[in-house]
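# step 3/5: fold
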Amino acid sequence: MLWVKAFHIVFIASWFAGLFYLPRLYVNLAQQPDPAVQSCLIGMARRLYRFTTMLAIIAIALGLWLYVGYGIGVGPGNGWMHAKLFFVLLIIGYHHACGMLLRKFEQGRNARSHRFYRWFNEIPVLLLVAVVLLVVLKPF
């Protein structure tokens, strides 16, 4: 079980590295008027999104293995796990939103400013803090 937990943490950290950097590319894209540079940044964002998606799938699969296979967070007194799963759903939604924004950049239909993406980039930090606090403190 400790091996599964260790790899779950590694893949979560890797997934979040992508979620932290991808919107940063969007900030640069929103500020960049040069089509050649935009094309390069879109290529970088596309590859990062694909790679981050693979990391997310593995992280979620390992988390399900811990939950279903080992029963971590199952049973009475584990309300923290329900809250954590809610935040995981929000993280998956954020990941999906990153993909939708990438498609808009690819189609040349971005209507948002670099300031929006700077704020958008803070969301995964808040979600990660919430999940870590729930897992470590198990407040309910």
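# step 4/5: annotate
The chain has a mean pLDDT of 97.
# step 5/5: archive (pending)
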